[in-house]
Amino acid sequence: MKKTLLLTGVLLALTASLASAAGLSLGWANPADLGGPRRKARLLQGVTRVRTELARAAVITDPRIAGKRFRAATRGLNQLQQKLRKGIFRWNFDLALANNLISEADALMVAVQGLMPPP
Q1: Which of 97, 93, 102, 96 lies closest to 46, judged by CA?
Q2: What are the tens digits of pLDDT across the range 35-61?
Q3: pTM score, two decimals?
Q4: Any idea what the Cα angle at residue 42 is, between residues 52 and 33, rounded to 5°?
Q5: Does residue 19 have a pLDDT over 60?
Q6: Burial grade of 28 (CB within 10 A; 0-12, 13-18, 19 or more)
Q7: d(Cα 35, Cα 37) in Å, to the nearest integer?
Q8: Which residues contact 100 (CB under 8 A, 6 or more apart)?
Q9: Degrees, nearest 5: CA angle 28-103-16
C-alpha cells in the first residue's frame, strides 16, 4: 500500500511539473504567435482548468472519484490540443510554438493516463 502511494505521489509530482511547464511556455508566449491576446487567454484558461483537475485528483482518496478527475484532465488536454491544431490550420498560430505545446500536452496526457485506475 505504501509503495502504491509513493509511486502515485511521484507520478503526480511529474504531471504537476509537466502541467506547470506547459503553462509557463504558454504564458511566456507572444500573444501574436497565438492568434491574439484573447485566444492566448482562452488557452491559458484551459491549462489552468487541467492543473485544477490534477490538484483535485491529488487530494481524493477514492480511486473511482480520482479517476473521474483524471479523465476530466485528459479531456481538457485533448481540447487544448484540438484548439492548437485548429489554430495551426487557420494559420493563426506560430507553427513551432504550437507544435511544442502539442508535444508537451501529449507528454502530460500520457503521464495522467498512467495515474488513472484500471476500469
Answers
A1: 102
A2: 889 988 999 999 999 989 888 888 888
A3: 0.76
A4: 120
A5: no
A6: exposed
A7: 7
A8: 25
A9: 65
